[in-house]
Structures are given as structure tokens and as C-alpha cells.
UniProtKB/TrEMBL annotation:
Keyword Iron-sulfur: no
Record has Zinc as a keyword: no
A biological-process GO annotation: sulfur compound metabolic process
Membrane-spanning residues: 7-28
Highest taxon, organism lineage: Eukaryota
Protein name: Sulfotransferase
Signal peptide: none
InterPro entries: Gal/GlcNAc/GalNAc_ST, P-loop_NTPase
Keywords, ordered alphabetically: Membrane, Transmembrane, Transmembrane helix
The organism of origin for this protein: Elysia crispata
Molecular function terms, GO-annotated: N-acetylglucosamine 6-O-sulfotransferase activity
């Protein structure tokens, strides 16, 4: 496959017209465009939240612009002078490029990202770059992409692997940038990460993983309080559990914060995402999913999907690799994962979001939950979570809620 040659050639063409491009971009600069950045940890319900935001047609949505930094093969695409020096600076510049619809020599490489196919805003560019076309056609797609991006009222990027501290500089330089931080019960997030990302396992890794996670979460919360005071009205923390318990109220609160209109279409869309399908309906997102045969009409199978409200990048990576996975030594794990994921990895639909939200309580085990509590418990009051004192309390989802009212005047 001469894909890399093609890309190289395409880059050359882009580079040669770069000065022209900058001029064009400056001329096109629409000053009333606003930007939104959603920062979270993997498996925190951010795909659902982002789908809700992207429902508004005036929003230009980029899904995980930094995901290529996590995959070994693609790290090679990070410009050499960033590979060892400054991940923070490079990550920030990539985010900034998507938010401002303006790419430079370095950040242009980030457009080669498989996750771009997962947002309607970026999918055309992804498909165009994949197609066997000549550089000139790629260039045309690229300009169309920039133009489309520029034409929307708001640009929106959702990312993980981005400590809140890194956002300060962006907030300072872009007065129309608003930050959303999405938080979820660390026990649920880590349980889901263990299951889906498979970068660590419980119980063997629980101590180090939860200590790291909640150190980062604690730092993020401190930074958020600082940013909120520095940039009033431009920083807001949302809690996943509120989204599961009251999806339309949650959507309305986000739209209110972002000054987007709350329409009937939005309410319908949110209701659709969070209610059971009619018995004979199929998720339209899944209908044409040829990479992954769907069978969503089968109710029994669909229940398996209900285990998490979020759907994240690893999940999608795995679906892409599913052909490899069936043959590889690791095939067994991967196939189990595919099965667990249900038939449609691109769906953020859940029949019963509250059940999905609490599913971790039946899976995690009391000992693991206790270890996480010992590393994260100091944050629970602020965020409105409760430790479970016994195994029975942990698993008794019918009578005992581990979701509480967050601290008054706190971060949420
Ligand atoms: C996706 O974008 C296309 C145009 O690029 C538009 O026609 C279509 O309605 C969009 N779909 C959704 C679900 O927003
Ligand atoms: C998880 O634990 C195993 C065994 O103790 C160890 O080899 C591995 O490096 C740990 N992984 C992480 C991500 O901490
Ligand atoms: C689903 O069933 C209802 C009646 O139960 C029918 O009106 C509708 O057309 C069906 N939809 C599809 C997609 O088959
Ligand atoms: C789904 O696939 C059919 C047949 O391949 C095609 O005609 C149709 O446009 C596709 N729909 C979407 C939403 O991509
Ligand atoms: C759905 O499942 C049924 C029964 O398992 C099978 O016959 C059918 O081909 C499947 N449909 C698709 C689209 O894979
Ligand atoms: C639906 O799934 C269940 C359990 O996997 C299976 O027994 C049943 O035959 C499936 N029905 C169809 C129509 O595929």
C-alpha cells in the first residue's frame, strides 16, 4: 500500500500552498465563532454528552483529536521535535487547530486520525484522505473541511489525556472558549476502563491505577476551581450520573451553559438516545455499519449493550481491528469484548441509562471498590459520591444510592 507516499505527497502540496492558505484563513476569519472543549477521562460518558452537544447543526464536532498520540504506530506522525520535548505544547496546538479551523505544519499531521470518521463534521475529510485520490483532490477536501469548520457557530472538541492545567493558556488566549469537564464516579470509570481498554486488570492493578487516577482527578478539580475564578462563566463541571438520571435536564443545562437553543429536536434526540427502541426498530447509526454486522433488532442481545452509557475510543479501535483479532492470539479477549459491546459499537443509545450507570456495582467486587475508595474517597464529598460500607450496600442498587448531592458551592 502506498498510503504513506500518498500522504507525503499530499502534505507536500499542502505545505507549498501554506502561505496562501494562511491568508485565506485570515480573510475568512469569522470573529463571532465560539469554541468549546470537553475534557474528561476515558469511559466517563463523554461520547453521549458529545453527541448531545453535536446535535445542534451549528456545532462542528471533533471526536478525540489527540487519540493518535496514544497509538504507537501513529506516534511516529508526531513531528520529531515534539516527540521528546513537549507533549503538552503539541497537544494544545492540535486542540487549538481544530477549535480555530486552522492547521500549521505540525498540527496538519494530526488530521490523519482514524477517529475523525466518528463525527459527522469530520467524517468526509477522513473518507477523502483514505480514498485513492490524487493530492489535488485531497487538498480540495481539506479546504472544504476548513470552510465547513469556519462556517459553524461553534467548534467543539472532546478529549481525554488532557490535564485541565493545559487548558489555562487556551482560555487566556481565546476569550470565547468555554471548558466543560465531565466527571464520573471513579469506581465506575476504572471498572469500565479495566474491562474495555484492558490496559490494566483488577484486582492486581487497582492500587496503583486508582491512586494515579484520583491524583490526576484531584489536580484537575483544583485547576478547575482556579480557572472558574479566573474566567467566570467559562468553566463548568458536569456529572455523568446527572445525565443518566435526567437526560433531558442534563442536555438543557449544557445547552444553557453553551448558549445554544434548546429545541424540540434536541429533546427528541435525547429521549431517543435514552429510551428503549420500539421492538422492531434499528438504531439508524448501525444500519450501514459494514465493519460490524448488526443485529440490533434482537432485544436479548441488545441488553448486553446496556452496561455503559459511554462508548469510547478503545472500543472503536477494537471494532476496526476485529478481523485481525479473530486470528490473533489475543483474539479470544478481543472477541469477548466485541460480544460484550453488542452489535453496534457506534451507538451511544442505551435502553436504560440508570441501570447502565449502576452496572459497575454488580461487577467490581467489594474489595476492589474499597481500595478505590481509599484512594479517591477524599474527593467523594465534593463530587457527590458515597463509599459503600459493605458488600451488600455496594450491590443493593435497588435500595441504596451511591450518588449523593455534591458539596454545596462546590465545583459542580
Ligand atoms: C451529517 O452531515 C451531512 C452533511 O455533511 C448532513 O446532510 C446530515 O444530515 C448530517 N447527519 C447528522 C446525523 O447530523
Ligand atoms: C499490572 O500489574 C501487573 C502485575 O503486577 C504488572 O506487571 C503490570 O505492569 C501492571 N500494569 C499497570 C498498568 O500498572
Ligand atoms: C414497527 O411496528 C409498528 C407497529 O407495531 C409499525 O407501525 C412500524 O411500521 C414498524 N416499523 C418498522 C421499521 O418495521
Ligand atoms: C446505507 O447503505 C445503502 C446501500 O449501500 C445506501 O444506499 C445508503 O445511502 C446508506 N445510508 C447511509 C445513511 O449511509
Ligand atoms: C441477525 O441474526 C440472525 C439470527 O442469528 C441471522 O440470521 C441474520 O443474518 C443476522 N442479521 C445480520 C444483518 O447479520
Ligand atoms: C436473539 O438472541 C437470542 C439470544 O442470543 C437467540 O436465542 C435468538 O434466537 C435471537 N433471535 C433472533 C431473531 O436472532
Amino acid at each position: 500500500m502506498n498510503l504513506s507516499f500518498k500522504k507525503y505527497w499530499c502534505s507536500l502540496v499542502i505545505i507549498s500552498v501554506f502561505p496562501v492558505l494562511v491568508t485565506v484563513m485570515l480573510l475568512l476569519n469569522t470573529t463571532d465563532q465560539t469554541q468549546t472543549l470537553l475534557v474528561t477521562f476515558g469511559r466517563s460518558g463523554s461520547s453521549f454528552t458529545s453527541d448531545v452537544i453535536a446535535q445542534n447543526k451549528e456545532v462542528f464536532y471533533t471526536f478525540e483529536p489527540l487519540s493518535f498520540l496514544a497509538r504507537e504506530k501513529e506516534v511516529l506522525r508526531v513531528p520529531e521535535h515534539f516527540q521528546t520535548i513537549d507533549l503538552e505544547d503539541f497537544s494544545r496546538r492540535v486542540i487549538e487547530s481544530y477549535l480555530l479551523c486552522t492547521f500549521d505544519f505540525d498540527t496538519f499531521t494530526s488530521l490523519d486520525n482514524i477517529h475523525l470518521r466518528l463525527s459527522n463534521s469530520t467524517k468526509d475529510l477522513y473518507e477523502c484522505f483514505q480514498a485513492e485520490k490524487i493530492g489535488m483532490d485531497h487538498l480540495e477536501c481539506y479546504f472544504k473541511f476548513l470552510q465547513e469548520c469556519k462556517s459553524r457557530r461553534m467548534t467543539f472538541a472532546k478529549t481525554i489525556r488532557f490535564p485541565v492545567k493545559w487548558a489555562q493558556d487556551l482560555m487566556m488566549r481565546h476569550p470565547k472558549l468555554k471548558l466543560i469537564y465531565l466527571v464520573r464516579d471513579p469506581r465506575a470509570t476504572l471498572n469500565s476502563q479495566a474491562k474495555v481498554f484492558k490496559e490494566f486488570t483488577f484486582p492486581s492493578n487497582v492500587t496503583s491505577v486508582s491512586a494515579n487516577h484520583c491524583r490526576q482527578l484531584g489536580q484537575d478539580l483544583k485547576q478547575l476551581a482556579h480557572l472558574r475564578d479566573t474566567f467566570p462563566g467559562r468553566v463548568k463541571v458536569f456529572r455523568y450520573e446527572n445525565g443518566a438520571r435526567d437526560p433531558t435536564g442534563f442536555a438543557a443545562e449544557i445547552y444553557d451553559y453553551l448558549a445554544l437553543p434548546i429545541t424540540e429536536e434536541l429533546t427528541d434526540f435525547v429521549t431517543y438516545l435514552t429510551s428503549p427502541f420500539p421492538h422492531n426498530a434499528t438504531d439508524p447509526k448501525c444500519k450501514n455499519n459494514t465493519e460490524f454486522t448488526t443485529n440490533t433488532t434482537n432485544k436479548t442481545d441488545r441488553i448486553k449493550q446496556d452496561t455503559d452509557l459511554d462508548l469510547d475510543m478503545k472500543k472503536q479501535d477494537t471494532s476496526l481491528k476485529s478481523n485481525e483479532a479473530t486470528q490473533s492470539v489475543n483474539g479470544k479477549t478481543d472477541m469477548t469484548e466485541l460480544k460484550y459491546k453488542g452489535q453496534c459499537p457506534f451507538s451511544t443509545h442505551r435502553d436504560d441509562p440508570v441501570k447502565a450507570m449502576e452496572h459497575w456495582r454488580h461487577e467490581i467486587g467489594f474489595e476492589v471498590a474499597r481500595v478505590i475508595d481509599s484512594h479517591c474517597g477524599h474527593l467523594y464529598q465534593q463530587l457527590g459520591y458515597r463509599a459503600a460500607s459493605t458488600k451488600e450496600d455496594l450491590e443493593n442498587t435497588a435500595d441504596i444510592s451511591l450518588v449523593d448531592v455534591p458539596q454545596v458551592e462546590g465545583i459542580i
